[in-house]
Design a protein that fits this description.
Blueprint: H1 2-10, H2 12-15, H3 25-33, E1 36-44, E2 53-62, E3 69-78, E4 81-92, E5 95-100, E6 109-117, E7 120-127, E8 130-140, E9 143-152, E10 155-166, H4 174-181
Antiparallel strand pairs: 1-2, 1-10, 2-3, 3-4, 4-5, 5-6, 6-7, 7-8, 8-9, 9-10
C-alpha cells in the first residue's frame, strides 16, 4: 500500500500545482512551463520501501478545462511493474482544485493547498489520514527536482525524491522554453 501511495505521489510533481491565492499571470507562466514531456528517476528515501528506485514518464499540457492549469498523463515503473498516472489541476474561481487518479475518495490523492513562487511550487496533499507536501523546483527550464514529504507527529519527513528532465526530442526546444519563461 505504501509503495502504491509513493508511486501515486510521484505524479504530483507536475500535477500538484495549486495555489490558495488568486491565479495570476506568474502562475500561468509556471503552469505553461511544465508542459511537455518529462522523464526521470526517483527513489523512495524513507519508510518500509526505502531504497526502491523507479522511473517516470509524463506528458503535460495546458488544461483544456481551465484558463490556468495543467493536465498530465503518463506512468511510473518499478522493475517490470508499471502504473498509469493521470492528473488535472486548474483554477476554479480564484482557487485551484485538483486530484491525482481518482482523488482521495478512491485510490488517489487530493491536492488541497499551495502556492507558486517563481520557478517553485509547494502544495498540500491529502489522502484520508495521510497529510503531506510536495515541493517542485524548476532548476532550469529542462530540469525539475521534486521532494514529497509526509507529516509524522507535526514534522514533514521527506519520503520521495525525483529529478525529471524535459525530453527535448518530443517537447519544446530549450530556447522556446527560455523565451516562454521571460
Amino acid at each position: 500500500m505504501f509503495l502504491r501511495l509513493s508511486l501515486t505521489a510521484c505524479v504530483l510533481l507536475v500535477s500538484g500545482f495549486l495555489s490558495a491565492s488568486w491565479a495570476g499571470p506568474k502562475d500561468k507562466v509556471f503552469f505553461d512551463s511544465v508542459s511537455g514531456v518529462w522523464r526521470g528517476p526517483g527513489e523512495i528515501v524513507a519508510g518500509k520501501y526505502k531504497g526502491t528506485k523507479f522511473h517516470c514518464h509524463f506528458n503535460g499540457a495546458p488544461s483544456a478545462e481551465h484558463k490556468i492549469g495543467v493536465a498530465m498523463d503518463g506512468h511510473c515503473r518499478v522493475g517490470i511493474f508499471s502504473q498509469k498516472m493521470t492528473a488535472i489541476i486548474g483554477d476554479r474561481g480564484g482557487n485551484y482544485t485538483g486530484k491525482f487518479q481518482d482523488g482521495a475518495k478512491g485510490e488517489g490523492l487530493d491536492l488541497t493547498s499551495g502556492k507558486v513562487n517563481g520557478n517553485k511550487i509547494v502544495v498540500g496533499l491529502n489522502r484520508k489520514k495521510l497529510n503531506g507536501a510536495m515541493v517542485a523546483h524548476l532548476q532550469e527550464p529542462d530540469v525539475m527536482n521534486v521532494t514529497i514529504s509526509v507529516k509524522v507527529r507535526e514534522r514533514l519527513i521527506p519520503v520521495i525524491g525525483m529529478t525529471l528532465s524535459r525530453d527535448r526530442k518530443v517537447g519544446a526546444s530549450r530556447q522556446q522554453q527560455q523565451d516562454h519563461l521571460r
